[in-house]
TrEMBL record, chain B:
Gene3D superfamilies: Glu-tRNAGln amidotransferase C subunit, N-terminal domain (1.10.20.60). It comes from Castellaniella daejeonensis. This is Aspartyl/glutamyl-tRNA(Asn/Gln) amidotransferase subunit C. Its EC number is 6.3.5.-. InterPro entries: Asp/Glu-ADT_sf_sub_c, GatC. It comes from the Bacteria. It catalyses: L-glutamyl-tRNA(Gln) + L-glutamine + ATP + H2O = L-glutaminyl-tRNA(Gln) + L-glutamate + ADP + phosphate + H(+); L-aspartyl-tRNA(Asn) + L-glutamine + ATP + H2O = L-asparaginyl-tRNA(Asn) + L-glutamate + ADP + phosphate + 2 H(+). Heterotrimer of A, B and C subunits. Allows the formation of correctly charged Asn-tRNA(Asn) or Gln-tRNA(Gln) through the transamidation of misacylated Asp-tRNA(Asn) or Glu-tRNA(Gln) in organisms which lack either or both of asparaginyl-tRNA or glutaminyl-tRNA synthetases. The reaction takes place in the presence of glutamine and ATP through an activated phospho-Asp-tRNA(Asn) or phospho-Glu-tRNA(Gln).
Amino acid sequence: MTQLSEFHSIQALGEALRTRRVSAAELAADALRAAREYADPNIFLHIDDALTLEQARAADQALAAGSAGPLTGIPVAHKDLFVTRGWRTTAASKMLAGYVSPFDAAVVDRWREAGTVSLGKLSCDEFAMGSGNENSAFGPVRNPWDPERIPGGSSGGSAAAVAAGLVLGATGTDTGGSVRQPAALCGVSGIKPTYGTVSRYGIIAYASSLDQAGPLARSARDLVPLLDAMSGFDPRDSTSLETCDGAANAPGRVQAAFDAAQAGFQAGGERPLSGLRIGVPREFFNEGLSADVGAAVEAALQVFESLGAVRVDVSLPRTRLSIPAYYVIAPAEASSNLSRYDGVRYGHRAAEYTDLFDMTSRSRSEGFGDEVRRRILVGSYVLSHGYYDAYYLQAQRVRRMIADDFRRVLAQDCDVIMGPVTPAVARRIGDNRQDPIADWLGDIYTLGVSLAGLPGMSIPCGFGGESGRMPIGLQLIGRYFDEGRLLALADRYQQATDWHQRIPGHA
Amino acid sequence: MALSEQDISRLARLSGLRLDSNDQTRARQELDRILGLIEELQAVDTTGVEPMAHPLAAHQDIALRLCDDTPDPASTPEQRDACMANAPAAHQGLFLVPTVIE
């Protein structure tokens, strides 16, 4: 029996599949068994063998017919924020327990068309609100590097599944860091592309002007086909882009940019990144940054320098303001988006009620968890009469100033920005239960990128914590539509280091 | 700025949420803390800065694309039933709710 755990990259597994050394169905059966037997029962919210094996058989047919692509037969799974036909979709909320979508999200469609085989649905923070996956109504997910600790969030199940080797790729969504932060805390690679490049159709909405899908995988090289396949214009999403600075927004764009960047690096020989200016924002190295994370990021920057890059000190003076700006804008949009859960058309309905309003408000109070209720209340407040200008519009003005800061630095001072993803390694499960706002402050290095709509990614760059065994992530932030070049830069780093190859239990 | 009990009741109503007295007390404490955090925005001089509604507005001139307001001709009663299959209470293509008009 072939085991998924024998393969550490999409390329290696893809070759084994295309040369027919492995069948997609055999592999899927093994992967399903591994997923069911995995020590953390909370990681998958729904597995359905028949649905997975049907996709695997389709992959085997494509492989037999010679029409297979780089992702045909590759085992993946989807964050439960993406609606799926067949598999239940809950957004990890009691509100949507048992919900079955009549259609597939655009990203789910695109990955299936590319030949991936889905193992099912992965846990996350309820409605993607959270940074630790503890806000799931169905129990916390454990970090594969230490089961006492969080995997990060909100795409915590996605990052943990990749780190545990249960899948070679997973979908995530990133509204304020929800791909990059769990990728960092679980020691995997993840990218949030430029807003508008990946369709939001079928992603359960949290904060629509910030929500963007992105993949998580073992390495930057694995992210290339995964991101490429999910990108592209979709008329069903009103913010989906038809073009990216003149290039068609379609599969092939990311791959072509990755290949072009690699060709340029190749010309540099021993110093492939010669001339590359890395902007290091001084505000990312503030007093809140823990020493282990700071040291790992510093060592990573030195690797980039050894490859020919130069370091430039830059300033993003409004970094700290990204926290209040985000925690006005995101809750405002959330309170509006989540008004659809009324206990009438779908979702939880209270058992007892008096009139229509009582039914709706009881249903919502029972169906939503603490963090979701908290953000809805904040959103209602900042949008209410008398506060709209002072909070919401003011936050949108600050948002523009933050975006302008990034634009100026990336236009004048540097070609890419690098820094930490998180102030510290993964904390213990339950640690911030008495202080729900504490987690918000930990989002400081990721929120600005989301507010500006820029592409950003996280790659493993070392270990820290008291045990010295908890992963640390390096954040790379590019110009608009720079996904392909970011992935190529990350790949050059991963050619020179082996952090991304470490697996839990063997670090 | 501290919120009053009336403020919390009003917010709960606006939010379509039902908070019991324990919830209210906790919500008040948490919201006071959160408002303290977002209060920092007030000190920023944003004179002359346009609010940014679209996430790519700092990069390019961009507006939301509108779609035609037309029904999907491919829609069938079966599709309607599939969409309504998740309704807590439905009858012959209608969503059931408590009596609104006596």
